[in-house]
Specification:
Elements (H helix, E strand, L loop, with lengths): L3 H16 L1 H7 L4 H43 L5 H10 L1 H10 L4 H15 L1 H5 L5 E6 L11 E2 L3 E2 L9 H10 L2 E6 L2 H11 L3 E6 L1 H13 L3 E6 L12 H10 L7
Helix pairs in contact: 3-4, 4-6, 6-10
Length: about 260
């Protein structure tokens, strides 16, 4: 994705710089003297804007890297909204830096998830009554026979072969709609269709970080719980952590 950026936008930038004189001549009545006076100023402004934008990106990269270091040492996220902004907008360069330092991309995803959790903690605690819990289908047992509904995902049979039956019952007691989904696209469709006030998502860190950022853009109070074991088949999650997230949802508004 990073390598394709120059190929896509560099020709547009070159075309803009070298062809800006054509409309300029028309606006200035075709006077070469007027064009020669205006164009250097226009180029200077364009250069200053580009330099300021580059400086902002470098500053955001440095600040986000500092927040990641603090998270690595203390386990706490400082300036969570800024951390989500930097982690989402500059994911590729940050992942490259972390890989160079021997850290996997999973660490960056966990950082973004925890930052999003912290950023939405207050809204999550004050969320309204329409709530959903979405978990991935990879948590099912390999012997699962649950039917797949194209609108709502897998319908749990509560057969006891995996912990999803227990989790579904806990969700119902807490007033959550429970969904076992085959992918994050279904989660977004469900959130829009149900107009949820709050959502809890369980997924691998890579998918969860993107889903949390999407939830913030949709103004849905969300909490994310990463899978304890990845692999896309018979994965695991900390059930106590999911139940704790359900307990916190709407806690302030119910008091």
């Amino acid at each position: 994705m990073v390598a394709s950026w120059p190929q896509k936008y560099l020709p547009l930038c070159i075309d803009l710089v070298y062809n800006v004189s054509r409309p300029a001549r028309g606006l200035l009545g075709g006077s070469p003297a007027a064009v020669n006076r205006v164009l250097p100023v226009a180029y200077r402004i364009l250069g200053l804007v580009s330099l300021a934008g580059a400086a902002c990106l470098v500053g955001l990269l440095a600040l986000t890297a500092l927040l990641i270091v603090i998270y690595a040492r203390s386990g706490r996220v400082r300036l969570p909204r800024l951390a989500v902004l930097g982690g989402g907008a500059l994911y590729s360069p940050l992942a490259f830096i972390l890989r160079a330092l021997g850290r996997p991309a999973r660490f960056l995803d966990l950082f973004v998830v925890e930052a999003a959790n912290a950023a939405m903690a207050r809204a999550f605690a004050r969320a309204g009554p329409v709530r959903m819990l979405a978990v991935p289908q990879c948590l099912r047992s390999g012997e699962c026979r649950a039917p797949l509904d194209p609108q709502d995902g897998y319908r749990c049979c509560r057969c006891g072969r995996c912990p999803l039956g227990e989790l579904g019952e806990a969700a119902e007691r807490r007033g959550f709609r429970f969904f076992i989904v085959p992918g994050d696209r279904m989660v977004k469709r469900l959130a829009k269709r149900l107009a949820v006030d709050a959502a809890i998502g369980v997924a691998c860190p890579g998918e969860l970080s993107g889903a949390m950022i999407a939830g913030m853009k949709m103004r849905v109070a969300a909490a994310g719980v990463p899978l304890a074991c990845d692999g896309c088949f018979e994965t695991r999650v900390d059930l106590d952590r999911v139940k704790e997230a359900m307990r916190r949802c709407g806690m302030s508004s119910s008091r």
